[in-house]
Amino acid sequence: MKRTLVFSILLFLALLGCKSPRYSFDELPDVQLVFGKGGGMAGMVDTYILLQNGQLFHHNSVTETTKELQALSKKEASAFFMGIEELGLSEIDFYHPGNSYYFLEEVKENQRHRIVWGAKDHKLSKDCLEFYKELKSHIK
User: Using H for helix, E for strand and C for coil, what is the string for 22-57?
Assistant: First the structure.
């Protein structure tokens, strides 16, 4: 009986230590997947920040409001971070905004790599567009 109780307590403490940390918009981790859209007459920019633990934040540049959205599962978030690696985003050089534009940005520690598209005369790869659409479909 005593062994079972001790084992249960140790197991509980081990599982408690495995919980992913929670972040606030003011204190984000070094690895992020940033995406969104901007431009138009108001010049508004909607920025979404996905973290590896699944947390998702939204910032609106006009209202200067930031809120945490419904999180993705850790498995879904991990798939997106693997997907950004498979796309090779850090190797893509694409900056062609239009009046309205869209962006994908990979943040790793102090390095940021961003692609921007929207200009009618410059087409982004189908893979990048599909990846962006899939990200947007998870916003609730």
Answer: CCECCECCCEEEEEEEEECCCCEEEEEEEECCCCEE
- Report yes or no: 93 and 137 within 8 Å, Cβ to Cβ: no
pTM beyond 0.85: the answer is no
Amino acid, single-letter form, for residue 116:
V
Cα angle, residue 59 at apex, residues 128 and 70 outer, rounded to 5°: 80
How many percent of the chain have pLDDT more than 90? 75
> 77: buried, middle or exposed (CB in 10 Å: 19+, 13-18, 0-12)?
buried
Residues 37, 101 contacting (CB under 8 angstroms): yes
On the question of pLDDT at 19 being above 90, the answer is no
Measured CA to CA, the distance from residue 56 to residue 139 in angstroms comes to 8
Q: Which residues contact 140 (CB under 8 A, 6 or more apart)?
A: 69, 70
Task: Confirm if 47 and 41 have CB atoms less than 8 A apart.
Answer: no
Encoded tokens for 75: 């498995």
Q: How far is CA 61 from CA 12, 45, 69, 119, in A?
A: 43, 5, 16, 21
